[in-house]
Amino acid sequence: MEREYCLKVPPEAAGERLDRFLVCQSLLVSRSQAQGLIEKGKVLVNSVPRRSSYRVQSGDLIVMQAPPPFQEIVPVPEDIPLDIIYEDEDLMVINKSQGMVVHPAAGHKQGTLVNALLNYSVHLSSVGGHLRPGIVHRLDKDTSGLLLVSKTDFTHQELARQLKAREITRRYLALVHGVVREQQGVIDAPLGRDPRERKKIAVLAKGTAGAREARTHYRVRERYAGYTLLEVSLETGRTHQIRVHLSYAGYPVAGDRVYNCRGNPLNLPGQALHAFQITFRHPCTREVLTFEAPLPKVFADTLSKLRC
């Protein structure tokens, strides 16, 4: 007996292929299985059949008819400590630790930020579906720093609007290989799925299918022997944008296991990338708020050693 699955595309997933989007959701399906359902007309986007190559848009409503044994991941509360920078009745600002996945997915069913949030609060927005309660945007597993969490659907929708309109400012600190000579600069290079390794993101030529505009601003904070500490801000918010852009510019993020070909001489547990500051307008009070999070100890200790 078939079951109907309803999925709403969050802002951060906009631009993904339809088949890939389905695979990345709570349904444990392979890409070939997803493509088979799409070809049979079992997947509708806003009540219209689409091809596997269709690029989903923020707010798209996807309905899929699928028989067992398609399984769902159902997030459960887990007693995991949270570093809460700010909280009121509408939202929270969380300092995510390095190594924590934001929401459950295939291969990461437990130990995520969502599991911790469900244990902490019953008041979380439902806009992102049962897999992403409260989650407005994401950080990579090994990127630490500030994340917005919404408690109400109104707050979620307004924060998502601000993200899409580029009204939220997010600043990062990145330790990169090499000594960056320019004091500041902009990396303007379209990003999309790597045609050779589909799990990776790559810089693509303008006009290439799947290429999306991406701009990263940076300025030098400190220079060391063989490394540079950069302050980075995003004009766009693409998957792995900072990591791919900096690697493309010749300055890969230290500790990055995916986009860094220079090894890990500093023995870092993951990429040295920290979302240290976020500025946004509170959806209810309309006050402009700015929050900062200190560097993780391993990051701060590494900088101290480089300064010696």
Automatic annotation (TrEMBL):
Pfam families: PseudoU_synth_2, S4. The keyword Acetylation does not apply. It comes from Syntrophaceticus schinkii. The gene is ylyB. Responsible for synthesis of pseudouridine from uracil. NCBIfam families: rluA_subfam. PANTHER family: MITOCHONDRIAL RNA PSEUDOURIDINE SYNTHASE, RIBOSOMAL LARGE SUBUNIT PSEUDOURIDINE SYNTHASE D. This is Pseudouridine synthase. The active site is at D140.
